[in-house]
Amino acid sequence: MSRVVDILREELREFAGYSSARKEASGGTVWLNANESPWSAAGDTQGLNRYPEPQPAALVARLSALYGVNSAQLLVSRGSDEAIDLLTRAACRAGRDSVLISAPTFGMYSVCAKVQDATVVNIPLLAEHGFALDVDAVAAAITAADNDQRIKLVYICSPNNPTGAAVALADTERLARAAHGRALVVVDEAYAEFSDAASATSLLTTCPNLLVLRTLSKAYAMAGARIGCVIGDPTVIAVLRSIMAPYPLPTPCVVAALAALSDSATALVRSRIALQRCERARLVRALSELPQVLKVFASDANFVLVKWVDAAATYQRALAAGVVLRVPSPQPGLQNCLRISIGTPEENQRLLAVLAGQSRADGQVNAEAHA
Predict the structure, then answer these.
(1) How far is CA 160 from CA 20, 189, 308, in A?
(2) Ramachandran region of residue 173, left (φ > 0), alpha (ψ -120 to 50) or beta?
(3) From CA 225, how far away is CA 217, in angstroms rounded?
(4) Where are the domains of the chain?
(5) CATH class of the domain comprising 265-369
(6) Mind listing the pLDDT tens digit for each residue in 161-200?
(7) CB-based burial, 296-323: b 16+ in 10 Å, e otherwise
């Protein structure tokens, strides 16, 4: 019977990794085992003279409760970026294995693959169907890959960045079953809090080769703290932990994350998510009425993707007014598109005012041209 850990590189399956002083420490009140300073720095109230826990128990417990999993299934990482890097290094043999993406999507999947010298297989999203995932083509690619140079990671970004579309849970389950014994299916749920779609964590019991990425960077307003996690089979989590840096999580970031996950803080998060979803709907309606907008794509995230008559001109006009938008990286289907994050009601109104001014200016030019 195959084990999910057997998908990973053979030499890492039993790899113990670096045995840090903090990992080895057990009890005691006088710590003389890590060559740390015995004194705190001036003004320090957090014990920064001591190395932090590699995986802080309190934070692991809080995140496990938040996502409804047990602690052995969860590894805290420096944002989702580190988790993606760890997965790529653990699963892919350099120069031999591949990762599958569906572009346009988050660029770090390809960046980490390139660093590991893994081939990127791209099954494009269906632009003509609102950038839907081509489930049939992805499943066929997984099963058709050569056994000695095969796809080891399949990335599903849901809701997808930069298009905003979520992937149905049934489609995720189908792909995980198609990849059984062959590849890990990694569902990146960085924007899940803004969507009504069910989390793929509900499939972990029946799909052991499935992993889920979550982050505090978006809904929990902790982008500067770099706190994310990867959730999945405990044997895979153990391998990722073994190849991780010895002390990945700075103490101040852990303290800030625990504060952000308190009961009062999470209540505030829920109210802000509700407000952003209302603002997203308002922004979609207003943008759809502008003559310079060709299409506003449906979004389940905290941003919208918009196709313009002239995206470059719109970007520059907004920038001149102090509003910074995002030009997506050049990927199929994104020509003349801009990604707009959902800001505060005041910030969104400022953007709409700038764009409405452009509409009036364009109308005046057109009227003068026909005078």
Answers:
(1) 37, 8, 20
(2) alpha
(3) 8
(4) 4-261, 265-369
(5) alpha beta
(6) 999 999 999 999 999 999 999 999 999 999 999 999 999 9
(7) bbebbbbbbbbbbeebeebbebbeeeeb
Q: Considering Cα of 304, then 309, then 311, then 317, what sign does the dihedral take?
A: negative
- Whether the pLDDT of residue 16 is over 50: the answer is yes
- Alpha-carbon distances of 17 from 13, 41, 81, 241, rounded to whole Å: 11, 30, 20, 8
Which pTM value belongs to this model?
Answer: 0.94
Secondary structure letter of residue 25 according to DSSP:
-
Q: Pull the structure tokens for residue 169.
A: 């849970």
CATH annotation of 4-261: 3.40.640.10
Q: What is the DSSP letter of 132?
A: B
Amino acid at residue number 122: N
Handedness of CA 82, 158, 92, 127 (dihedral sign): negative
Q: What is the tens place of the pLDDT at every residue in 103-161?
A: 999 999 999 999 999 999 999 999 999 999 999 999 999 988 665 568 999 999 999 99
